[in-house]
## 1
Amino acid sequence: MIICEPECVGFAHEEVNAGIIGQLLKAGGDGDNLLVVERQHLSCIRTIWSSRAYSSQDFSSRFIKPRRKLWDFRPLKILYLRWLSGTLLKEAERRGTPLVFLSVSTELFMVLHQLSPAFENVNIIIVNHGILEQLVKEEPVGKADTNRWFGTWFFRKNRMLNNLIISPHIAQNLRDDFGDRLPSVSSIHHPSVWMDIEADRSASSPVHFATIGKMGKRKGEEELVRLFDRLKGKPLPFLITILGYLAYSTEDERITIYNRRLSREEISRESAMADYFILPFRKDSYRYMVSGVLFDAFNYGKPVIALSCSLMDYYFSAFGDIGYLCRDEEELYNTISSLSADFPVERYKTQVQIIMKARKMMDKENETVLAGLLNNSFQDEQ
């Protein structure tokens, strides 16, 4: 097969791309595989693979330079993508292999809709993640046309293009929201290269909570601030670490906010010391997007303490006791307080075991879906 990452450079989306490229290569089996990618991005992916003792199928590589400064002028970006897509479509036709595009942009969507009719024998797979939020995202006036433009191409049905959605909950939300307008889609769980961790954990005192990333509105910035304000002065034995950014100032030594970008090594070290991940996502968030932090928690084998939203509701329903799903901020506060005062050792061990089983189940489900797509037996999920 041919796999093309047309957008990402360096460490951008390195975790999800390390996962999906590895799973695509495994599902496709032995063969003449070509990866078209930016050089440093492939280096980051290889680092993840080697650090987690992951062995991928063989492939050759061809390097490109995405996101050139000239791309700010959209017509030039479209010309570049027409050239890149046309070249790879011809090569896929010649080889008789599937062609997979990752990190799809609005411009690439348009180009593939225009070029695909001339390549009826090429199995084209488009991975959609992140960009789907443009279907409903409210933007300033200057960006509103871009969002409508993406929807125009996304909803245009084309039997030549197989849309792959990252997370089953997104596919279901799209069907609920758009019905017959929706083109055929299939979905997989957020692909991951799992770490080898110890499934058996002992109690720690104080109990350590953590989360990763820049805490904006979607990730629960306001909810975290209110939680910290309520915990202030309470004589509870806990530690909370924000492995990223949060606009909050405190003298409480139990709360650590880095307010900088951490290296992969720092995140790994701090995450390994945590007991739980806090995911206070807003109720209306992550309908068309999956959270990498949730899968960071799974990767480190950590139960989550989350506010109810579409994403979290799905994964608690799918896998069971993977942590604590809170109806509101009051329950979130009470859960943090209760766990800090009395750490439930046996339930914690059970939760970790459930997460480890869930990781295997997700890998197996992903492999089945990807093998079907690559064998051109794509069918719209019901």
## 2
Amino acid sequence: MLTYTETRLIVVGKLVKLGWSPCCNHVAAIARKSFQTVSGKQEAHAYLSKGDNFNRALKGTYYWGAVCNLLEPHGILIPLDTDSKACAARVTQFALTVDAVVSDSYGVRLRTVS
């Protein structure tokens, strides 16, 4: 079983390999990724929960407008009993989903048309 710190290192390391940047230790987000939109750069942020007795949750935020978090329904669970390889695979799944959701957002699509 991976500790929270081990899981966080795997998650951040994998996200960095997939184009994300690590966040400072004093903020809640563990990583961020910038996306170019019609109105300039917007950032997605990733968060890792300490978990319950079964899973840790890897969630994201990407706001379009003041209140619409496009990533709200796209978090993933990382079972506490997972190994590092399976954890990294879930992180890849999360990152690919974030890229797909954000790329399909109005602001990014509008930028590609302009």
## 3
Amino acid sequence: MQKIAKTAMKILKGAIADLPATVKLVKICSKLYHNLDQYNTVHLDVGAAKLEQLSL
């Protein structure tokens, strides 16, 4: 039982050691997604306005 507990602790420590890098990656991807979403929204709005002007 003690060997299983030690193995489990090693596994958990290994998983936790990578968390800071993972959190940083998630934050960067979240910001990137937000910026791309804003970019697309602006360009879609401009495109829709141009189409509206053409149809008038």
## 4
Amino acid sequence: MSTRKIEPIATFEWKIAQSLIAMFPSIQGGSELVLCAKAKDGSVLVQHTCMVCEMYGHKNCPYVKNALFFYMLYKKQRFERYKIAPERVVLKKEWEQIPIPSKQSVTN
């Protein structure tokens, strides 16, 4: 499995759940959504599943790995642990599109 970094094409914020949703181009065409939110125990809850997850496992999915990276940039905080909720994420109208978090936004 390639470890090439996949960049999101859009990010959304869901203020009610204090979540970041990253939208990535899918290797199958279309897009993949990954929702990241802080869990009560301090870990990150990651909601996502796709064909890559089914074949290689969630811990090896590049969408999960990269969504976690951008979530840490968004929160300006490192997280050592995460949990997977293996469910598809569906775009919701209440999500607000925000600029894609960047390393520059962390230093500013």
